[in-house]
């Protein structure tokens, strides 16, 4: 990790530094801290990451938990982290290392909410088509550690170094903002559930209703004393984001003599619908050399959504985008594409994403595969797996959202 060392704080003169890392990049971020921290300065902590994303560390303990649906391991780790932060003295420092995936991993539901109730709500939110900001508004108001509550528990200086996996790079939305002020409310959380017709368990509903009535304490807001105390500092610093990955990809294409156009790192919406817009742009480029002349690589990032319309859906937003793109571009030659999640896991399966080639649909038909039927059933994994066109990287130990590139020759 080359970015972390540039942002490390000066260790406390007489205190201890507690490292609390959470997210898919937690172990790699913590390792970078260990490798660049002064030997004689005391440091310890915990790194909470997804199963299979651990690394051997010396002074920071690694804990693995479930993602995207939380489990008891994440709950216990979050409880321990909150307790450790609350025990810090004024001479100490809390160094939080936050990356994508932390919303599911850093799970500490309010006492009256069982972990299974939280799991059920999470599954429903992930399948309904809600965007990450909406999902996190609910998560924050069911948690005792997210939505700025970790910062509220800590009474000493706090620096959060953040790798963004969300559009807009607002710390409040990354890992549900454990160290950042939360502008959303209990009412916002209720509105999300109503908007998507989600029927939560009784304990969850009662908790949110009590919050709306003012019977439960709200999450710390931007004007809270948690973030404005003269006695300590709380800083949330985004050190890497999706745009860095897009710029790196553009340099690779340009080194090969191919013009690269970055369309943006904040593209959202239903994955299959976003693909239709991209396909229209490709047809314009291919047919009229406008607004860009081939060969050109159209690069984009962001976080689309997938509304699962029935049982049996397999895949994720990247492979669904690519399958929809393939269907829209049927009959058009000279187009290749890739879509993948930079963390190495796209949705429900083991692949990071998939590849599309001009002959993808023809090869599928030869195998008796109906691309449109699989798209309608949200089975993009089944399509690309049958073709042998999955992108499988394993855990990358980082996460800066999705990466898409369409090469028009």
Number of helices: 14
What level of helicity do the residues show? 25-40%
CA-CA gap between termini = 35 Å
Number of strands: 12
Order of helices and strands: EHEEHEHHHHEHHEHEHEHEEHHHEE
Can you tag this structure with a few keywords?
409 residues; alpha/beta; Rossmann fold; glycerate kinase, domain 1; 2 domains; globular
Describe the structure.
This protein has 409 residues and is an alpha/beta fold. It has two domains: 4-108 and 143-184 and 219-240, 3-Layer(aba) Sandwich (Rossmann fold); 242-408, MOFRL domain (glycerate kinase, domain 1). The chain contains 14 helices and twelve strands. It has helices at 26-36, 72-86, 102-105, 115-127, 132-140, 149-153, 186-195, 202-212, 242-255, 271-288, 317-328, 360-366, 371-376, 380-387, and strands spanning 17-22, 43-50, 60-65, 93-98, 157-163, 234-240, 259-267, 296-302, 335-341, 353-356, 390-391, 402-408. It has a six-stranded parallel β-sheet with strand order 3-2-1-4-5-6, sandwiched between helices. The protein has a six-stranded mixed β-sheet with strand order 7-8-12-9-10-11, with helices on both faces. α5 (132-140) crosses α7, α7 crosses α8 (202-212) and α10 (271-288) packs across α11 (317-328). It is globular, with a radius of gyration of 22 Å. The model has no long low-confidence stretch (mean pLDDT 96).
């Amino acid at each position: 990790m080359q970015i972390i060392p540039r942002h490390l704080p000066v260790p406390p003169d007489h205190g201890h530094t507690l490292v609390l890392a959470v997210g898919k990049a937690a172990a790699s971020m913590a390792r970078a801290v260990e490798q660049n921290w002064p030997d004689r300065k005391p440091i310890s902590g915990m790194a909470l990451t997804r199963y299979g994303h651990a690394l051997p560390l010396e002074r920071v303990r690694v804990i693995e938990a479930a993602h995207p649906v939380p489990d008891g391991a994440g709950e216990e780790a979050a409880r321990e982290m909150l307790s450790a932060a609350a025990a810090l003295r004024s001479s100490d420092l809390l160094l939080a290392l936050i990356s994508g995936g932390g919303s599911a991993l850093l799970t500490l539901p309010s006492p009256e909410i069982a972990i299974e109730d939280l799991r059920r709500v999470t599954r429903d939110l992930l399948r309904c088509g809600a965007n990450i900001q909406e999902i996190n508004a609910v998560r924050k108001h069911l948690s005792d550690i997210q939505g700025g509550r970790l910062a509220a528990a800590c009474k000493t200086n706090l620096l959060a170094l953040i790798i963004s996996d969300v559009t807009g790079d607002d710390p409040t939305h990354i890992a549900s903002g454990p160290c950042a002020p939360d502008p959303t409310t209990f009412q916002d959380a209720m509105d999300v559930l109503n908007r998507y017709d989600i029927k939560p368990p009784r304990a969850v509903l009662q908790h949110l209703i009590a919050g709306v009535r003012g019977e439960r304490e709200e999450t710390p807001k931007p004007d809270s004393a948690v973030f404005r105390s003269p006695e300590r500092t709380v800083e949330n610093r985004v050190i890497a984001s999706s745009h860095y990955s897009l710029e790196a990809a553009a340099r690779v294409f340009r080194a090969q003599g191919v013009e690269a156009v970055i369309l943006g790192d904040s593209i959202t919406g239903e994955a299959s619908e976003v693909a239709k817009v991209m396909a229209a742009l490709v047809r314009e480029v291919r047919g009229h050399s406008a607004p860009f002349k081939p060969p050109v690589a159209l690069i984009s990032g962001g976080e689309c959504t997938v509304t699962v319309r029935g049982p049996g859906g397999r895949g994720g937003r990247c492979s669904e985008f690519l399958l929809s793109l393939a269907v829209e571009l049927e009959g058009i030659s000279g187009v290749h594409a890739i879509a993948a999640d930079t963390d190495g896991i796209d949705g429900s399966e083991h692949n990071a994403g998939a590849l599309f080639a001009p002959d993808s649909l023809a090869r599928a038909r030869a195998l008796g595969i109906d691309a449109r039927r699989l798209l309608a059933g949200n089975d993009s994994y089944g399509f690309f797996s049958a073709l042998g066109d999955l992108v499988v990287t394993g855990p990358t130990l980082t996460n800066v959202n999705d990466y898409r590139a369409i090469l028009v020759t």
